[in-house]
Design brief:
The protein has 65 residues and is of the alpha+beta class. Helices cover 22% and strands 9% of the residues.
Length: 65
């Protein structure tokens, strides 16, 4: 978490961390794409990212093993 905290994340990235954990953690293969130009705080670069569900699913089973 120290690496994340230097960016002053909104909600300590909790929304993202919970989403990725639910989708399969390090096995997630869904590409993200910029969804908006909104910044949580000017100059932070914190924007909305959309993850389309890949045809084969959110994660490749066994990648992190």
């Amino acid at each position: 978490m120290p690496d994340y905290m230097k960016y002053r994340p909104e909600g300590k990235f909790a929304h993202y961390l919970m989403m990725i954990a639910a989708m399969g953690e390090s096995d997630v293969v869904a590409p993200g794409r910029l969804f908006s130009e909104y910044e949580n705080s000017i100059g932070t670069g914190q924007v909305h990212i959309w993850f389309d569900r890949p045809v084969a699913g959110w994660a490749e089973v066994g990648l992190s093993a």
